[in-house]
Amino acid sequence: EDLNVDIVIVGSGGAGLSAAIEAKEAGKSVVILEQMPIIGGNTNRATGGLNAAETTIQEENGIKDSKQTFYEDTLKGGHDINDPELLRTLVDHAPDAIYWLNDMGAGISRVSLSGGATNPRIHTPADGSAIGPVVVNVLSQKLKELEVDILLNSKAVKLIEQDGAVVGVEAIDKNENPFKVNAKAVILATGGFGANSEMVVQYRPELEGFSTTNHAGATGSGIVMAQEVGADLMQIEQIQIHPTTDPESGYMFTEGLRGDGAILVNKEGKRFTNELLTRDVVSQNILKQTDKMAYLITNQEMVDENASLAKYIKEGYATKGDDLSLLASELGIDAAALEATLKTYTQYVKDGKDTEFERAHLTQSLEAGPYYAIPVTPGIHHTMGGVKIDTKTHVLKPDGHAIAGLYAAGEITGGVHGGNRIGGNAVADIIVFGRIAGQTAAAELK
Ligand code: ADP
C-alpha cells in the first residue's frame, strides 16, 4: 500500500535517525525506510566516539583545545582535500551534537586522545564503551516517543521525480512487493558502500580481496539512486582502510586502544610505527610487515580500565601470556625480541620520549603482565567520497544547482573527510549533518 508523508528518510543509521527527529520536531510527518531487519547500519559498529572541540566536557577535564586546531587536524588528516565549508560546518556544530545526544541520555562524558588529533577530543561514554550502540539506542527511543515509524525490511529502489523535483521513493518490502512513499522531500541517509566489493573495486582496483568492517547493508544503493536523478559525486575513489581489524572476520578494534596506550609489534616482535599516526599511514605501515599483519599489545592494567578492550578479550580476539616470554611462545614469535621491544618502550614512557618513532602521549608503561596480543590487519572501513552536498545538505548537480526535494547526510555524502577520515569524525558527521538535513528539509517544505 502506498504511503503519503511530508518527508521520507531512507536509512536508519545515525544520520537518518537524527534527521527524522529534527523533521518531526519541526512538525512534519516522517517515515523512515530501512532495508535491513534491524536499525542502525554501520552506526551500530562505531566503536570510538565523537570528536568535538571547545566542549564543556573538555573544559571540565582540563583539556585545552580549539575549533581551529580541530579543523586543521582534520584537513591535514584528510590530505588537504576536504571541502572547507562542509568541514567548517562539522567543526562548528560538533559540540551541540554531543549536548543534544546527552539531553537524550547518551551519557557522553569522557574525552580521550585518538589518531590524528593534536589534543584529546574524542568524546565517549564514561566507561569507554562503544559510542555507536549508545547513539542508535537514544535516537530510536526518542523516535518512539515522537511516534515516528521505522519500516524495517523496506528497501528504497528508485527516487520518484516530477517536474524536476524529487517527490518520493519506490520501495520493496520483505516479500519484494513494491510500494510507493509519496513525499514532499526525500532525505538519503543510506550510508557508504564499504560492503559492496564490486563498487569498491570499480573505484579502487587495488582493494580487491580486502575484508570489510562494514555491515552487509553498506552497498551504496543510495549513491546510485542519487546519480540516477542527476546528482554529482565527490571524491568517490577515497576509500579508507582501518588499520586494526581481525584478519579473519574484519571485526574492527577501536583506534582508542592505541590512543589509550596499546602498541603495535610485528611478527619479529618489533615496533615499526608511531601508533598514533593517521589511519592511512598506520595501515600502510602494517601492510609492509610480514604477512601484512601486526599485533596490538596491551596488558591487564589497560584491560581493567577499558570496557572495549575487556570485551574484545572476552570475545576471544586476544592471545594471553602471563609474561612476555609466555606470550611470545603462544604467538610463535621471538621472545627475546619482544622483551627487548617492551623494555625499550617502557623506558620511553618513563623518559616521556619515544626516540625511535616519536609517538607522543606515552601514557601506559606496559611494564607488568599479564599481556594480551590481538592480531590485526587493515580492512575496508569508510567510504569518504559520495554524493555532493552543500552545507545545508542539498544534493547538488554537476552544474552546482540543487536537486529540488533531495537531501543527503552521513556516509553517503562526500567531502567532509577528504582523503582520509580521522577516527571520531564519522559520528560527528552523521549527527551534525543528519540534524541539518532534517531541519532544512522541514523548513523548505512547500
Ligand atoms: P550513516 O552512518 O551515514 O547514518 P549507516 O550505515 O549507519 O549510515 O546507516 C545507513 C542505513 O541505511 C543502513 O542501516 C542501511 O541498511 C540503510 N540503507 C542503505 N540503503 C538502503 C535502501 N536502498 N533502502 C533502505 N535502507 C537502506
Automatic annotation (TrEMBL):
Its cofactor is FAD; FMN. GO terms for cellular component: membrane. GO terms for molecular function: FMN binding; steroid dehydrogenase activity, acting on the CH-CH group of donors. Keywords: FAD, Flavoprotein, Oxidoreductase, Signal. It catalyses: dihydrourocanate + A = urocanate + AH2. Its EC number is 1.3.99.33. It comes from the Bacteria. Binds 1 FAD per subunit. The keyword ATP-binding does not apply. Belongs to the FAD-dependent oxidoreductase 2 family. FRD/SDH subfamily. This is Urocanate reductase. The chain holds residues 144 to 589 of 589 of the full protein.
